[in-house]
Amino acid sequence: xxxxxxxxxxxxxxxxxxxxxxxxxxxxxxxxxxxxxxxxxxxxxxxxxxxxxxxxxxxxxxxxxxxxxxxxxxxxxxxxxxxxxxxxxxxxxxxxxxxxxxxxxxxxxxxxxxxxxxxxxxxxxxxxxxxxxxxxxxxxxxxxxxxxxxxxxxxxxxxxxxxxxxxxxxxxxxxxxxxxxxxxxxxxxxxxxxxxxxxxxxxxxxxxxxxxxxxxxxxxxxxxxxxxxxxxxxxxxxxxxxxxxxxxxxxxxxxxxxxxxxxxxxxxxxxxxxxxxxxxxxxxxxxxxxxx
Length: 292
Ligand code: ADP
Ligand code: MG
Prior knowledge:
Elements: E1 9-20, E2 23-35, E3 40-44, H1 51-58, E4 66-71, E5 74-75, H2 81-91, E6 92-95, H3 99-102, H4 109-119, H5 124-137, H6 153-164, E7 171-175, H7 183-200, E8 203-207, E9 219-224, E10 227-238, E11 244-250, H8 262-268, E12 274-279, E13 282-287
Parallel strand pairs: 3-8, 3-9, 6-7, 7-8
Antiparallel strand pairs: 1-2, 1-4, 4-5, 9-10, 10-11, 12-13
Helix pairs in contact: 4-5, 4-6, 5-6, 6-7
The structure holds adenosine-5'-diphosphate and magnesium ion.
Magnesium ion (MG) binds at residues 51-52, 175.
């Protein structure tokens, strides 16, 4: 009998309410999310939908207001301040949108990667070896002695990935890490994340506006008004030519609803007049014919 694996990240009915003077902002309203160990998951959603709030909670930078949230053995609603510090130092790595927020400008790439290791007291020789390994993993073995301003934005973000992984955390979180990059450079950063996920078995949750993220992540979930509203998975399929293609599937949610990406709904003009035909090999969606 195969044992059902417990998800590495478990959020159930999660709420985050910010109180401002006499105003309450509900940033997360009953969010459910599970991420398996070693999964590369992307979160997409409009600005203000709660993406950063969720990542900050998963990084133990912020505390939920109600519900359940767990990462590995940790319960994010019941942690002491000491446990939070320990968690942030060793159990999670974070990459921010702005390269300048991720790196110290007066330290080389290698020195930047060593900083988190020196904080937890790793011996110098090991720091050097591990920093070099991590920079090689993201394809920067020839640029380890450059300062951040001598690197492109994409290269700086790849250094930031190495910094985030310095203390070998099992989880890597990234909030719009490609937000300030062009398409080609964004692809390099996502490729580096994908490589990291596969080689080191790190679980990755990334927030991104970049549509190309679906080609790299195992799964894309959409968040709207503080809840997950749609999910899709990319699966590798091998064509006859031996070439690998990625196909996207939509997932039926727990309530049995099928959510289409907003672009498809708009493009096909489906709102309020859609016909579904369930067939043996799938579901056909057609706009309903107009009455004459
Ligand atoms: P996203 O990252 O998807 O753009 P956020 O998680 O930053 O969204 O914000 C979700 C909602 O919570 C927004 O309405 C935002 O204004 C509000 N919010 C975020 N952080 C705070 C805060 N520290 N205080 C008050 N409201 C906040
Ligand atoms: Mg945000």
